[in-house]
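hey so u asked for the seq, here:
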Amino acid sequence: MGKILGSGIQDGLLLKPINYQWAMDLYDQAVANTWFPNEIQLAQDLADWEKMTDEERHAVTFLMSYFNPNELLVNKALAFGVYPYVNAAECHLYLAKQMWEEANHCMAFEYVLDTFPIDREAAYSAHVDEKVMAVKEEFETKYIKRMTEDTMDITTTEGKKDFIRNLIAYNIILEGIWFYSGFMVALSFRQRNLLRNFGSLIDWIVRDESLHLKFGINLILTVIEENEDLQDPAFAEEIKQMILDGVTMEEEYNKALLPNGILGLNADYINQYVKYLTDRRLEELGFEPHYNVSNPAKWMATANDTYELVNFFESTNTSYEVNAGNAEAKLKESTDGTEQEPDENDDK
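ran it, structure tokens below
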């Protein structure tokens, strides 16, 4: 079996034999999960929007302001920081599908901006004007720039470390913690019987992101396993500190997201969920939990069970699968950051 890393243009041009079955399984499931934003009747949520408080509308707008540009930022991290340095064809297939999904998520958030009376110009500028968003974006772009603006040699130990750092920054911290924190806030409205169709849109995005997270974690662990020079306690500690720094930034972001709190939700609640998520991500990477806090949003386990959700207005299953017979198996959904008793790594 060849190593997963490399930068040979003529390598990885043949799919069979497959060396990394987990990547092929994720590709098959991603294809089965294909969806389009306008299949959700989002306009039916407008009546809810009108009766929501200013603080609630601020929270939704804040989330859109953050999610929209960062979906495209993830694509830059994939295109410049991952795809060129992976040789396996099955990984290229999945990354291509993931990049389409990030574009589709961007269009989903555009659909929200088109439907709800949100000031698009203000929403677009917030990721620069809002300090808590700008700090997070600067953190992410610092790692992507190492891949795009500096010369990176994937055959060197430092080059391989930069590859892992980029994956940690965009996949574990941005997608696996920051995005999931926002998903929880977005789905909290449905807990109060508000924005149910918006919730269905988020469900579909969460389902995609759970696969993105699985791929990234598998890729990180495979690269480390195949490269003994990365099995360095000092490097492991650096990675862990990166993740903890991400938590600090997210705590400040959530204070700006909900400065006064809304019914049933405030910044402290969200930040406890962030710490709970972070412990799960640390465990998935082989670390011990750091915060040891309970999950304050146990309802997320139900909210994210997208295989059984039914759209409230249309009574259509929001979890349909395209070409589902092609997916080799239902993949474990242990990456949703929710409690799964007794063993959170067991299949649902």
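The chain has one domain: 21-336. The radius of gyration is 20 Å.
lmk if thats what u needed
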